[in-house]
Amino acid sequence: MTNHITTKWLGNMAFESNNPSGNNLIIDIAPEDGGEGQGYRPKALMLASLAGCSGLDVASLIKKMKLEVAEFRIETIANLTDEHPKYYDQVTIEYHFAGPNLDEKKLQRAVDLSIEKYCGVMEMFRKFAALDIKTYFNK
Prior knowledge:
This protein is an alpha+beta fold. It is built from three helices and six strands.
């Protein structure tokens, strides 16, 4: 399977990228870097992609396992190298679940399945960054 994305320059430092879903997104940089800050930053998009990929896996498993979860969020905290080209060399991924009836064992299993088996973006990140995965349960 091949993905084909077209990214078009909009002028100054902004680009528009299409998506197979039909939803486009704007990529831009901060005003202090010469952009207008009107879009997503490329490296931040990578972290959103990582969280989104794994989050979709976990959400699907929550549905399949019929688990009760009031809140679910993923925090990604990444260290950027100092030298150019700057890249993420360490990434912490925190899975936060909240609710009165959490089945911690099954939720941890859902997280483990995502990080070990299903999430392709996680596998890509493993090629260039050390990953630290943490799970938190809040009643």
